[in-house]
Please model this.
Amino acid sequence: MEFGNVSGRVIKKVGREIANLRRSLLLKRVRGIIHVGANTGQERHYYARLGLDVIWFEPIPWIFDQLSANLLDYPKQTAHQYLLAEKDTERCILHIASNNGESS
Model:
């Protein structure tokens, strides 16, 4: 095993842990989250550990279905299938990205 590979993985892991710590410190005073662009709710476990109420918004139908299924065990988190935009009086076009819609 190369030292460079191990140290790179350790640095990444430490960086992730520091980022998680910062987020949890910032969110300790927050009671809830409105998460726009939910995708499949990858952060649901994290929000649940913090005891937060979460409202998720995801417009893409097949991704919304996955999100809804992923939230079944999280009673404090609800999903809504809406596209949120700056103005509700204008028509919007949602461009779906080729990475399973993650960057849409």
